[in-house]
Design brief:
alpha+beta; 2 domains; 7 helices; Creatine Amidinohydrolase; 16 strands; 287 residues
Length: 287
Amino acid sequence: TLKPSDARIVEKDYREILKEIIDKSGKIGIDKPLQDTPIQQETRSDRVVDISGDVWKHRMIKDEEEIEAIREAVDITIKGIRTIQDNISEGVTEAELAGFFEERVRREGVKKYAFDPIIAFKPGNSYPHILPGSKKLGRRDLVLIDVGVKYRGRCSDLTRMITWGRPTPDERRSLEAVEEALWESIDSIYPGIKAGDVAEKAVKKLEKYGLHERFIHGLGHGIGIAVHEPPYLRLGSPTLLEPGMVFTIEPGVYFNGRYGVRMEEDVLVTKNGVRVLSRRLKPLLML
């Protein structure tokens, strides 16, 4: 975990620190969603103040050290995806490709994933979250790769689509619509825009293709210490985007039992607009 350069080191047991804080102020602030911590167990409920909102507000804004760690995690993830791309061949399984990814990122010093890798061929990729299995790559297939690593205490989360063989006209239309929704959303980001307004850009673009009802999840989520954290980019979200926020943009459409398409970039809000941290690898790769 990254530690701020101005963090104080205290050689005390947490019980001593807890007593000092309560003796001084009578209250102690706790991130309440973290249930059953020793502090909560050993402190009277009337002395506990929920400061989770303040904690998350602070965590949403990343400092330069955090941004650099996320950028490095993204770069390593891209190396892993390129290795998957290099090893795609007729008859390879989802699980085998997951193995190629793991071997590559481990060589970069990664000790754990940000989440279990999702590598799915048709029709498994018609479900947003599915683990790699023994399914073999078909002659005309779509490969959905949704992967991320945790590096220096911070997470990445990228999704790429790889076409194997010629996509059907229906598939090509979905790929085109999702990619347009991706960049339309990203191009709309600037400091002060509401998260919900960015999500609306994606929905309206998909609506033009008649595919908005196939978009069944939020547009994006913050990444940092956890792979899913605020801000959340959903319709109606009033959260104002600020410089230093890092989050995903991931529109997708899904046709149950047939196929699914999702593309995902990791982006940073800057004072001048937005920077795509994952732009070194196109969201749609054709083989």
